């Protein structure tokens, strides 16, 4: 036990934990996207390839890996300088949603199409909001007991503009994630608890208005409350999601053996991929996914607890809320704990904008982990040992060759 305690307390623990969990979730996601999307790929592609969606997701994973690697090498000071420009750029892209470049899906106008590529700018707003919130709230850390310093300039205009532009596009699911990010950062910044009650009441009122003014959202709410049980209507997707989980049992039907992905379950490789995980890998597979997200949350908490930089603490809390709350909403929708809201499972579901942006955010976390006291020196010492070891091998081989 003492040995494990020393390992957990090592300065490189967070760094390696983030790398391991991110790699595990991305690789697991690629396998499950391949399994869940084969039927739809065969149906949608003219060439009849079962791998088209999985191939595209693999390309996105490579691009996300490059983004993560580059971001992980940035110093904290550079992220502070990039915070506001990143948010401005994301908001500009979000404005393009309302131009002819914008694309609507199921009543949500939250995408832009640039040639063959479709981009979801609201994913970039998440990262821009995290960095800008960390910068502004960190600089005002000792003034946050006064409402005026909370309101300006973070809540107004930064948060209001960010959430407002996404709300105009009717993407309520993304707005809930953005609100969770803001709440997590404000909590980490030390905002007094009395302000959270008012914020929650305002958020509840806004969500209620958007639900009652949308027939699609009302139908999902009726399904969740049990008032609509028509298996051919809105109830069809959550019903077959639960069928998938029930069929999986303890250990699952086996990888690739899902029945529900054969056009019974909508979005099997995207919003409802957790149901396919449960069907093919059983309860054990779903618990592994939950354990990986818990490990990711622990790494984020560890960064926030060990740093002395307010920007790092607040931004880490924002990224933690982003990924963990989004995972909770997705999984809660699949198991019936929440209405179907329509957000992907981070790092696992199919989708380029979500995967690349989430991996970029994890690159930011890894750069924070590298800045932990003693981490950079420990990594440098370890890499120098490896270089010396590799240099010894050719020398030994050359001496052996001379003896022959």
From TrEMBL:
The keyword Protein transport does not apply. Pathway: Cell wall biogenesis; peptidoglycan biosynthesis. It is a multi-pass membrane protein. Peptidoglycan polymerase that is essential for cell division. Keywords: Cell cycle, Cell division, Cell membrane, Cell shape, Cell wall biogenesis/degradation, Glycosyltransferase, Membrane, Peptidoglycan synthesis, Transferase, Transmembrane, Transmembrane helix. It comes from the Bacteria. InterPro entries: Cell_cycle_FtsW-rel_CS (IPR018365), FtsW (IPR013437), FtsW/RodA (IPR001182). Its EC number is 2.4.99.28. The chain crosses the membrane at residues 15-38, 50-70, 82-107, 119-138, 150-168, 174-191, 196-215, 281-305, 317-341, 347-369. One of its GO terms (biological process) is cell wall organization. NCBIfam families: ftsW (TIGR02614). GO terms for cellular component: cell division site; plasma membrane. It is found in: Cell membrane. Belongs to the SEDS family. FtsW subfamily. Coiled coil: none annotated. This is Probable peptidoglycan glycosyltransferase FtsW. GO terms for molecular function: lipid-linked peptidoglycan transporter activity; peptidoglycan glycosyltransferase activity. It catalyses: [GlcNAc-(1->4)-Mur2Ac(oyl-L-Ala-gamma-D-Glu-L-Lys-D-Ala-D-Ala)](n)-di-trans,octa-cis-undecaprenyl diphosphate + beta-D-GlcNAc-(1->4)-Mur2Ac(oyl-L-Ala-gamma-D-Glu-L-Lys-D-Ala-D-Ala)-di-trans,octa-cis-undecaprenyl diphosphate = [GlcNAc-(1->4)-Mur2Ac(oyl-L-Ala-gamma-D-Glu-L-Lys-D-Ala-D-Ala)](n+1)-di-trans,octa-cis-undecaprenyl diphosphate + di-trans,octa-cis-undecaprenyl diphosphate + H(+).
């Amino acid at each position: 036990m003492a040995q494990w305690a020393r390992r957990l307390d090592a300065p490189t623990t967070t760094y390696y934990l983030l790398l391991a969990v991110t790699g595990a979730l991305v690789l697991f996601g690629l396998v499950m996207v391949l399994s869940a999307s084969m039927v739809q790929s065969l149906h949608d592609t003219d060439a009849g390839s079962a791998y088209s969606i999985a191939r595209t997701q693999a390309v996105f994973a490579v691009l996300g890996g490059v983004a993560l690697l580059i971001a992980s090498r940035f110093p904290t000071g550079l992220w502070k300088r990039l915070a506001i420009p990143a948010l401005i750029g994301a908001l500009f892209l979000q404005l393009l949603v309302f131009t002819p470049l914008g694309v609507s899906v199921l009543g949500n106008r939250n995408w832009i199409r640039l040639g063959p590529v479709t981009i979801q700018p609201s994913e970039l707003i998440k990262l821009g909001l995290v960095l800008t919130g960390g910068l502004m709230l960190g600089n005002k850390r000792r003034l946050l007991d006064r409402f005026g310093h909370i309101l300006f300039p973070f809540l107004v205009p930064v948060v209001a503009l960010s959430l407002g532009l996404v709300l105009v596009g009717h993407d309520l699911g993304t707005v809930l994630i953005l609100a969770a990010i803001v709440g997590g950062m404000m909590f980490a910044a030390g905002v007094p608890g009395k302000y959270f009650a008012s914020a929650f009441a305002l958020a509840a009122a806004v969500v209620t208005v958007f639900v009652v003014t949308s027939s699609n959202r009302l139908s999902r709410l009726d399904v969740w409350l049990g008032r609509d049980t028509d298996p051919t209507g809105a109830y069809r997707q959550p019903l077959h999601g639960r069928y998938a989980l029930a069929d999986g049992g303890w250990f699952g039907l086996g990888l690739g053996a899902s029945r529900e992905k054969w056009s019974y379950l909508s979005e099997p490789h995207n919003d409802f991929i957790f149901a396919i995980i449960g069907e093919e890998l059983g309860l054990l597979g779903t618990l592994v996914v939950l354990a990986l997200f818990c490990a990711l949350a622990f790494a984020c908490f560890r960064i926030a607890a060990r740093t002395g930089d307010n920007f790092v603490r607040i931004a880490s809390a924002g990224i933690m809320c982003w990924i963990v709350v989004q995972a909770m909403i997705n999984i809660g929708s699949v198991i019936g704990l929440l209405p179907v809201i329509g957000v992907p499972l981070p790092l696992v579901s199919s989708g380029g904008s979500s995967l690349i942006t989430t991996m970029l955010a994890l690159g930011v976390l890894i750069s924070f982990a590298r800045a932990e006291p003693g981490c950079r020196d420990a990594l440098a010492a370890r890499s120098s040992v490896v270089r010396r070891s590799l240099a010894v091998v050719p020398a030994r081989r050359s001496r052996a060759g001379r003896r022959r």
